[in-house]
């Protein structure tokens, strides 16, 4: 009992420190103690974090693991992973020196206060003004810290800054009109923020971009470390490379066989897929088609008794906010905050830009064809991300509630595509679009692993995408930027799906092959968003592993 109390006290202090260090992340979680602050990204702040992280490492290592109860053993691993990630950031990668985008996310930090109605508008707008007023310190820290970023990181930061105009020039002023008491302060805060963002963008374009010659690839050793310590996978990058090659070949064969059976066998699967993409809504119908498809998916889940849909969930489909549209070409999901009572979430659907040339508008509409909207709706909403993250919010334990594994979250949404297909949800066009989506998610394993472990240069990765996909160079470059910036995220979709099917096999060994599928889904979702290996431990499918060799910070 004493070790459990000692551990829980440590965990409580650790996360309170994290909340204080990252006000933006706290707001995202629904913890509102620091809504008027921006993250302190000064070198002095990082030095304090470095010392604090070292002390937490020592405290965690002093815990007698064997005396913890089962849940606390699992949570020990969660804290261990988080402390190691902090050490990697602070002492190894030092992303605050190489990633200009860390300082560019002011728009996101502010938008979180506007998009969720967790407090009266006047209180939230006061916090917005306070955050905008603190932009000079934020960007001064950037000027002092940034050294030699990879060029792609600097380009991403400039893209983010370019997208902030709609927020600063349209949305915030309109909302400020509703709160006269804050308008004068807000006008001054906006003036400060506009100037600071403009100056920072000029600094990146004229000073940082010309000297952005850093390396984005993290290397095999660190990729393996992330897979092992962040994602709790038993795969190395070498293993995933082989899995990716196998799954790409498998997906290509499935696409060929499906098209030969259901479409024109005289055409390649890509030619058949291009024909299907021509079947799309009109420009003014896209959002309505998304709404109909997500309601159809929701009804299908209920009718087939696949998983319970909590009564407190709320999903609001709407057009993507203007300042996010450059980063969201089609659709995206904005989840509820796990620590807030209001579990309203948003499905953002980006409308076709009427100012684009007709050819570009048609390309965007083909990417929103009926078949694609069908699988995207279930992936993002029911029974995919939205349903899973509503369950995540219902988790009571604060450590489990804070754990968020891309391998599980993206794996679950991808798993549900397969599961819904197996139950007969798709028509032929939708199934072809889903098979194509599975194919490029398999390609992501190769691209993610490849660019970070030296198997692909940037140009080789672009050539590989040109060979394997119909993406335009602009879309391909945008995809590759994301993979370079967030190693292991892109591979999480397909890898996560495979991990969930493996977990399902382990579940069957305990519960019998004829277990109710709904029970499996309920048990799985009630664990939150833990890495798959930790879910196995929590469900009692496998014993919790003892810690490996301790790592000093």
Provide a descriptive summary of the structure in words.
66% of the residues lie in helices and 3% in strands. It is mainly α and 553 residues long. It folds into 2 domains: 2-211, no CATH class; 225-496, no CATH class. The chain has a 3-stranded mixed β-sheet with strand order 1-3-2, with helices on one face. 43% of the residues are buried. The model has no long low-confidence stretch (mean pLDDT 95).
Keywords:
mainly alpha; 3% strand; 26 helices; 553 residues; 3 strands; 2 domains; three-stranded mixed sheet
Residue share in helices? 55-70%
Q: What's the Cα radius of gyration?
A: 24 Å
Given as residue ranges, the uncertain stretches (5+ residues, pLDDT < 50) are none
Structural class: mainly alpha
Please give the domain count.
2
- SSE order, one letter for each helix or strand: HHHHHHHHHHHHHHHEEEHHHHHHHHHHH
Average pLDDT over all residues: 95
Shape: globular
Largest sheet: 3 strands, mixed
Major sheet: arrangement of strands: 1-3-2
């Amino acid at each position: 009992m004493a070790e459990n109390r000692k551990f829980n006290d440590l965990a409580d202090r650790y996360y309170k420190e994290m909340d204080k260090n990252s006000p933006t992340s706290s707001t995202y979680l629904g913890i509102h103690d620091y809504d008027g602050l921006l993250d302190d990204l000064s070198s002095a702040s990082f030095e304090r974090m470095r010392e604090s992280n070292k002390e937490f490492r020592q405290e965690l290592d002093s815990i007698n693991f064997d005396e913890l109860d089962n849940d606390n053993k699992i949570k020990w691993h969660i804290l261990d992973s988080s402390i190691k990630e902090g050490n990697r950031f602070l002492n190894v990668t030092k992303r605050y020196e190489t990633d200009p985008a860390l300082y560019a996310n002011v728009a996101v930090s502010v938008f979180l206060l506007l998009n969720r109605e967790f407090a009266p508008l006047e209180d939230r707008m006061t916090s917005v003004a306070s955050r905008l007023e603190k932009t000079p310190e934020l960007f001064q820290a950037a000027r002092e810290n940034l050294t030699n970023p990879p060029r792609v990181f600097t380009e991403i930061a400039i893209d983010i800054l370019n997208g902030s105009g709609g927020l600063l020039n349209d949305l915030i002023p309109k909302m400020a009109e509703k709160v006269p008491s804050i308008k004068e302060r807000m006008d001054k805060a906006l003036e400060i923020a506009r100037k600071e963002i403009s100056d920072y963008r000029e600094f990146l374009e004229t000073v940082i971009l010309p000297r952005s010659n850093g390396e984005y690839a993290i290397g095999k050793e660190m990729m393996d470390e992330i897979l092992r310590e962040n994602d709790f996978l038993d795969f190395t990058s070498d293993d995933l490379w082989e899995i990716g090659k196998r799954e790409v070949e498998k997906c290509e064969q499935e696409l060929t066989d499906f098209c030969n059976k259901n479409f024109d066998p005289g055409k390649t699967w890509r030619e058949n897929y291009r024909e299907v993409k021509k079947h799309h809504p009109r420009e003014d119908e896209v959002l309505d088609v998304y709404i109909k498809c997500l309601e159809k998916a929701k009804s299908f889940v209920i009718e087939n008794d696949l998983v319970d849909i909590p009564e407190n969930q709320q999903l609001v489909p709407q057009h993507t906010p203007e300042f996010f549209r450059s980063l969201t070409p089609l659709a995206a999901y904005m989840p509820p905050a796990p620590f807030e009572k209001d579990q309203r979430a948003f499905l953002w659907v980006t409308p076709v830009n009427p100012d684009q040339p007709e050819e570009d508008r048609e390309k965007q509409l083909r990417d929103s064809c009926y078949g694609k909207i069908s699988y995207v709706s279930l992936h993002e909403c029911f029974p995919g991300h939205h349903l899973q993250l509503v369950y995540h919010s219902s988790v009571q334990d604060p450590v489990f509630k804070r754990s968020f594994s891309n391998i599980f979250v993206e794996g679950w949404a991808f798993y549900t595509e397969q599961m819904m297909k197996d139950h007969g949800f798709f028509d032929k066009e939708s199934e072809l679009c889903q098979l194509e989506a599975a194919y490029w998610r398999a390609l992501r394993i190769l691209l993610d692993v490849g660019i970070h472990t030296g198997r692909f240069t940037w140009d080789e990765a672009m050539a590989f995408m040109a060979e394997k996909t119909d993406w335009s160079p602009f879309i391909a470059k945008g995809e590759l930027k994301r993979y370079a910036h967030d190693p292991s995220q892109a591979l999480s979709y397909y890898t996560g799906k495979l991990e969930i099917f493996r977990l399902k096999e382990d579940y069957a060994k305990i519960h019998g092959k004829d277990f109710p599928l709904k029970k499996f889904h309920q048990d799985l979702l009630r664990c939150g968003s833990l890495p798959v290996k930790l879910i196995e431990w929590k469900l009692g499918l496998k014993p919790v592993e003892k810690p490996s060799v301790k790592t000093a910070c």
